[in-house]
Amino acid sequence: xxxxxxxxxxxxxxxxxxxxxxxxxxxxxxxxxxxxxxxxxxxxxxxxxxxxxxxxxxxxxxxxxxxxxxxxxxxxxxxxxxxxxxxxxxxxxxxxxxxxxxxxxxxxxxxxxxxxxxxxxxxxxxxxxxxxxxxxxxxxxxxxxxxxxxxxxxxxxxxxxxxxxxxxxxxxxxxxxxxxxxxxxxxxxxxxxxxxxxxxxxxxxxxxxxxxxxxxxxxxxxxxxxxxxxxxxxxxxxxxxxxxxxxxxxxxxxxxxxxxxxxxxxxxxxxxxxxxxxxxxxxxxxxxxxxxxxxxxxxxxxxxxxxxxxxxxxxxxxxxxxxxxxxxxxxxxxxxxxxxxxxxxxxxxxxxxxxxxxxxxxxxxxxxxxxxxxxxxxxxxxxxxxxxxxxxxxxxxxxxxxxxxxxxxxxxxxxxxxxxxxxxxxxxxxxxxxxxxxxxxxxxxxxxxxxxxxxxxxx
Length: 459
Ligand code: FAD
Description:
- The protein has 459 residues and is of the alpha/beta class.
- Helices cover 31% and strands 24% of the residues.
- The longest helix has 25 residues, at 82-106.
């Protein structure tokens, strides 16, 4: 019988890899994990967590502005200190990283703090130490990395999301390129912190794939908050001048800024990983191809999380890592259910969404009943703020099942997380209507929408 150094070798200690390593070790497996940067991965070190901390920071501007309507007087003009925020964020991330590391050690996982690559179906090489280690099973959980535009002259003058978290000072003017949630969130953060913010995107609207009402509503809200949009064009080149950066656009126009952030998508982190050597098959964009049990084309090699480019979200990577470990080492064959994944965009105002968009619902259902409410949240009244909250339920007109729930407004993510349970359980519009309202709240609107705003059919 072949003896391996480990039962499982995990490459990458991010959301998916850490969960898989801990759970497999808990099932009694001899587990090792290699991490080339910092424990916790993208989510903890340069993704969800630091992003949300920056979002919180950016929203204090609204709190200060609204406070006067509630009787508060702020004696001095509030001042913001970017280095202080970044230092506080770094301390929190270091704390979380420590917890990730401790969790792995406590589970008995052996840690290697260096890059690992595949040599063959059962062997990894550690880059710094030069060691080679074998394992019965190998899990690739190397995540993703920000895309760059290799043909863009002056791209070295730009930053990506990794670098945005560590800027030494807050720019006065920023241009964010991209239309996905990362671009939109960072534009909101910078605008909230008082930076003159422009978002440039090659399409005609941000947030492709989200419900159209949310996309339109957020564009309007951002415009009212002073964010400029430049749609339908891209950077042709970027140059540095004495007064900052100048971006030349394909449209012929120019944009001036102190910083330009590229948030033009992410790609699976597979470069130089040795996938060819091990015979692991990838899709044309580099994503590792896996089946519903996270198994690659090589029976002993598995992959979870962003490196598979399915639903690139932390909870999904965690679920995939957990299911893999339970199935392979715990004798519990489970696969992940991707139905009704709730998501948020931590813009200000925030987006929370679960289920089908209106467009997808019309494709999927013979008839779709639309319920929409647009209202000024209570806090906005005394604050004198005009921003509106939008709530939308999409109902299968035949079965009465609620198939989509979309919110633009404060706490949208929190509300939608709970609505997702109901949708996941197959709740009908009648179930929503029967649920007692919690008053006064914004979420009560979801159970008090009585009037259909439209009935839609295909074609
Ligand atoms: P990762 O967490 O990326 O972990 C991969 C790890 O592998 C990294 O630590 C990396 O250093 C390591 N690694 C790579 N190659 C090697 C190698 N050869 N050897 C050793 N180590 C290696 N998701 C949400 O759900 N909500 C959000 O609000 C959210 N916000 C985000 C904001 C930003 C700016 C970004 C970039 C992402 C955000 N995400 C969010 C996505 C989320 O971070 C990812 O979906 C999640 O981290 C994926 O986990 P993973 O385990 O697949 O990979």
